[in-house]
């Protein structure tokens, strides 16, 4: 039997462009739990210790806040995204054609 390991997106997020594309896809789901988990994967890709130092937040709090069960404050999200080299942007919704 072949041995497999769980998929971890963090292994593939090796640039700000890759992180931005991954998070953009996550935002389109409108699923807060999935979005938080995606931001956590991007954070792990960059390294939680470096991220903690850059944001002034503890590693433990980052791990907890950025898990699928986490409920991070918006300020935490903004600090993390800034440290990851990405930013949020607002765009008008595109109307779906019936």
TrEMBL record:
Stored InterPro entries: HI1420 (IPR014057), Lambda_DNA-bd_dom_sf (IPR010982)
One Pfam family, short name: dnstrm_HI1420
Protein origin, superkingdom: Bacteria
Protein's name according to its UniProt entry: Transcriptional regulator
Organism of provenance: Bradyrhizobium iriomotense
Record lineage: Bacteria, Pseudomonadati, Pseudomonadota, Alphaproteobacteria, Hyphomicrobiales
């Amino acid at each position: 039997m072949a041995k497999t390991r769980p998929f971890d997106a963090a292994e593939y997020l090796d640039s700000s462009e890759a992180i931005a594309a991954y998070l953009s896809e996550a935002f389109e789901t409108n699923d807060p739990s999935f979005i938080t988990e995606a931001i956590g994967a991007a954070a792990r890709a960059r390294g939680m210790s470096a991220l903690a130092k850059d944001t002034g937040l503890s590693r433990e709090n980052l791990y907890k806040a950025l898990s699928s069960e986490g409920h991070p404050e918006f300020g935490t999200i903004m600090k993390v995204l800034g440290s990851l080299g990405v930013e949020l942007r607002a765009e008008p919704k595109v109307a779906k054609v019936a």
